[in-house]
Amino acid sequence: MRPMLGRLVHDKVALVAALYLLAVVVVALVAPLIVDASLMRSNLRLRHLPPLHVDHGWWYVLGGDALGRSMLARLVVAARTTLAISFATVALSLVIGAAIGLVAGLSNAWWSTAIMRAIDVLMSIPSLLLAMVVLFVIGASPLVVVMILTVTRIPIFARTARSQALEIRERPFVSASRVMGASSLHLLVRHMAPLALPTLFAVAALEFAQVMLAESTLTFLGIGVQPPDVTWGLMVSDGQRYLATAWWSALWPGLVIASIALAATILGNWFQVANDPVLRARSARKSRAPAVESKVASNA
Amino acid sequence: MARYVLRRALQSLYAVLMLLLIVFAMTRLTGDPTNQYLPLSASPQARADFAALHGFNDPYYVQFIRYVSDLAHGDFGQSLFKQRPAMEVALEAFPITLTLAFFTMSIALVLSIVLGSLAAMRPNGRFDRMISPLTIFTASAPTFWVALVAIFVFAMMLGWVPTSGMGTPAHWILPVCVLVLTPLGVLTQVVRSSMVSSLSAPYAKTALAKGASDARVVFVHALRNSLLPLITIAGVQATGLVNGAVVIETIFGFPGIGKVMIDSIRDRDFSLTIACILLAAVVVYAMNVAIDIMYARLDPRVQIGGEARR
Predict the structure, then answer these.
(1) Cross-chain Cβ contact B250/A221 below 8 Å
(2) Is the bond preceding A277 in cis, omega lying within 30 degrees of 0?
(3) Which of B122, B145, B251 is the best substitution to test chain A (most A C-beta atoms within 10 A)?
(4) Burial of A45 (0-12, 13-18, 19+ CB in 10 A)
(5) In a structure prediction context, what are the per-residue pLDDT tens digits for chain A, which is 300 residues long?
(6) Average pLDDT of chain B, as a whole number
(7) Fewer CB within 10 A of the terminal residue: chain B, N end or C end?
(8) What is the pLDDT of residues B276-296, one digit of tens each?
(9) Dist CA A157 CA A123 (whole Å)
(10) Which of A133, A138, A210 to mutate to test the interface with B (most CBs of B within 10 A)?
């Protein structure tokens, strides 16, 4: 991890992105400590309070919403739900997808092909359609949103893990280990997983942005997270009605979503380059600017 | 060739059937549709008659078999809410979505080729440093929010275009411009990175050394080889357009298939939901097969059938 940190400091853009994400995560973690309950109560005198002045204290610097609650406080509270959903989704699909992909990559048996065909089918279903139907049936709650988004994201991790496994298993040290009588489980855990993980982490960072966008979209359409839970997507949806009178109530939450997705994408791209000696050498030779080659296939 | 296309088509058929099963099971779980359609004061007798008339009393598997057999006869069921054949409603809305998608993809493809190539000519040059961050931003900004901001700025403040609805060509400008941003950003990145590697290949250097102009090397020599990744990702993005269309049509009040789909889920209109999803899925799968064929045509190294191209 040490050399990675060193490289991060050298890439200014990626460093800023990482620090920004870190700051948002910290704010989300300490949200209950810093947000006073009174800020979340409706206060009709502060209804649609214009932003960018501090007459009513710093909490109202971003203005008030339709019920006079502080936009800033709402954003901070929503950060918790939004990030928790995205993080849980990415973590779950990473673990499940990687397990499926690595196992399927280790073996040439018929079921290995069968698994990947099933994954192909899953991947070809437009994710929003699937999510819309499922959410409407089971009812929308953060847990269901996590579940359905996880299902739609498993294929990407499974495919990445499998292609990694196919390559790693041909390396001499893996063959050697196999010849010496190592079990499949040992091969998976000791040899394949550690080598596949960095690539999977890079994909995870890019997926984090996509998952957050997907959750926001579902919630915006009214079929994702429901009040009283609040996410940034829900705040945009609330603010949509007051676009003509209070533009800020839709602007800030969307800006936060966009900036975090951007930061996560930059960090994911950087991680990919920093991990790959070939890419690293190439981008170092040309200049210090970050490469923008990305796993673009991921947002279908 | 014909065998390959047939096999791909069969695979797609299998996928459509899976989707059909999932969607059918899911929609039947949304609760008893009789409660949705009859007033609270309806007598138990009226409820029972309604359920019997539409077959909601039968076991689920009977309903499913009946549904699939109806499909095979070209009958997609009645839209309960609109009292018309479901496929008729879906097909009526479809041209709007198709037009939206067509304009979006055409603009995105042409612009991304131009912008990506220009950026790749001088990697990390001034133009590249301007374009690359921009493409990451347009690819990661949420569509629904960009749409709202665009409505606020261009329709409300400046009054250049109408806020929503359709009728005049001006109504199409904002939706297409917003919808184009995500594929444009992603595709430009793809063109740029594949063009960078094409341009550093020996044949590109040879062409330059023989005196070909920059433009000729980029657009004649290198572009053909950079098209392959572009086509693959363009297919993925086109599938993603289905998602984008739902959002855009909802916000801009376009009566396309995305809006019909969302409305039908809200109305618990089973047949219409399934008809819309099936229609969208069939088009997506047909496009994927077309892309595979195009891919093989463009790249003689691709051996049709089998894992050769991975």
Answers:
(1) yes
(2) no
(3) B145
(4) exposed
(5) 556 777 777 777 888 888 999 988 988 888 777 777 766 677 767 676 677 676 667 666 677 777 777 778 888 888 888 899 999 999 999 999 999 888 888 877 788 878 887 887 777 677 777 777 777 667 778 888 898 889 888 988 998 888 888 888 888 888 888 888 888 888 888 888 888 888 888 888 888 888 998 888 888 887 788 887 888 888 888 888 887 777 788 888 888 998 998 898 888 888 877 777 666 666 555 444 444 443 333 333
(6) 78
(7) C
(8) 877 887 887 777 777 777 776
(9) 11
(10) A133
- DSSP class of A70: B
Chain A residues touching residue B262 (CB < 8 angstroms): 132, 221
What pLDDT shows up at residue B19? 74
Query: Which of these, B49, B33, B65, lies nearest to B264 by C-alpha position?
Result: B33
B79: Cα within 13 Å, side-chain hemisphere: 22
**Is A286 in contact with B124 (Cβ distance < 8 A)?**
yes
Contacts of B156 in chain A (CB under 8 A): 243-244
- Rounded to a whole number of angstroms, the distance from the CA of A133 to the nearest CA of chain B is 7
H/E run at residue B85:
strand B84-85
Q: Chain A 59-118, CB below 8 Å of chain B: which residues?
A: 117
Select from B18, B148, B262 the Cβ nearest to the Cβ of A221: B262
Residues in chain A: 300
The complex's ipTM works out to 0.77
Are B243 and A136 an interchain contact pair (Cβ–Cβ within 8 Å)?
no
Helix (H, G, I), strand (E, B) or coil at B188: helix
Element at A41 (helix H, strand E): none
**Any idea how long chain B is?**
310
CB contact under 8 A, A262 and B137: yes
Q: Which of chain A's residues have a Cβ under 8 Å away from the Cβ of B284?
A: 124, 126
Angle between helices A127-138 and B2-28 (to 10 degrees): 20
pTM: 0.80
β pairing state of B78-79 and B84-85:
antiparallel
Q: Do A223 and B14 touch (CB under 8 A)?
A: no
pLDDT in tens, B157-173: 787 777 777 777 778 88
Tokens 């070209």 appear where?
B74
A292 with B189: Cβ contact below 8 A: yes
Q: How far is CA B119 from CA A102, A295, B197, B211, in A?
A: 37, 19, 13, 22
Give pLDDT, residue A285: 52
Cα distance from B266 to chain A (closest Cα, Å)? 8
Distance CA(B261)–CA(B274), nearest Å, equals 9
